[in-house]
Amino acid sequence: MQYLRLGIIYMLRAIKVILYIFPIHKNRIIFVSQRGIQYSCNPKYLFEHIYNEYGSTYQYIWCLNDKKIFPDEFKNVKIVRFLSLRYVWYTMTSKYYVSNIEIEPIFPGRKGQMVINTWHGGGAYKFSNVLMLPFYIKARRQYMMALLVIREKQTSFVISSCRKFTECFSKDWITPAEKFLPIGMPRNDILFTDCSFKKKIAEHYKLNQKQKIILYAPTYRGATFNPESFDFTFNVEDLIKNTKIRFGGEYILFYRGHLFFSFDYVPDGVINASKYPDMQELLSATDILITDYSASMWDFSLMKKPCFLYAPDVKKYQEEQGFYTPIEEWPFPLAETNEQLMENILQFDEEKYKQAVQKHHADLGSYETGNACEQFCEYVLGS
Description:
The chain has 383 residues and is an alpha/beta fold. The protein has two domains: 2-184 and 369-381, CDP-glycerol glycerophosphotransferase, N-terminal domain (Rossmann fold), CATH 3.40.50.11820; 194-364, CDP-glycerol glycerophosphotransferase, C-terminal domain (Rossmann fold). It has helices at residues 2-16, 41-54, 85-93, 138-154, 163-172, 198-204, 236-247, 279-285, 296-301, 314-320, 338-346, 350-364, 372-381, and strands spanning 25-32, 59-63, 77-80, 94-99, 114-117, 157-160, 180-182, 212-216, 251-255, 270-272, 288-291, 307-310, 334-335. Strand 11 (288-291), helix 9 (296-301) and strand 12 (307-310) form a beta-alpha-beta unit. The longest helix is centred in the middle third of the chain and has 17 residues, at 138-154. The chain is globular. 34% of the residues are buried.
């Protein structure tokens, strides 16, 4: 089956070479986020920066499966569905292709095109080398290796959040480190500004703006995840009570599920923000983050606000998937039980935490400065 899939990929690549007769439009940029599912992440923030700075200098194409989610404020932008004929056409004739995941291997790269993988996570936390996962059979590994080889040849640049990210992902993706742009995540630029989305979030969910937000955002666990064994196993009432004791103020708990998995049920009093379109706006408005292995902790740490790890399956996860950076070296207090989480909150030392976060950024070699969009334009559009 794996070899059949690979054969189909090469056949489709060969067919698409026919489109080489059409010229590449040097001022055309196509943006894709999660295969057209979202208007979000690094492609969103790069698009808005380029649109506002360069205007009609470029022709903008957005891949969105639901054009209703595209903001009305941006004019003269073409919307195409993922893998539609128009998507294929614009992909093969645009000089710039910007996506937060790898480009599909069915598209042969063209000389003169620039394919930029912005990725969708910073830091270097949970292991992502699919070739090493124990449940993959030999044929599957060979298939995945073939895809990595194809994608490496197609990719012009990968955006990197830190030195450790470049070291780990260049090896896993068999992509030269020279292709990694040391500029930080464009989506994180807003986290370095005074702009807060607290009011916007409060109005969206009809909240009192004085309420502080605790955001619970667990990550996706892939094939190793058993949803029946993982739920809101911490006590929400205890969480609110102890957070108020330690930090003061009135709190409300938000839940943010991963794009590929989220709980349909959340406890009473918890706001399910899984469908809110922009995670960075949520992070900006959040006062305290609770996660497990999600790269959102990297983004959130740039604001030096308290982040706690709640990972009841950490031992199993470490055995089956593992981490680039040992979890013991992360600056975020780790809890495996409800009791440990409450204790970590009550004993939280803000000054010690900020020093640990600063050291963590230095150890991983952070590239985050708050001007990733500008640097992108210098590296890519200026080249």
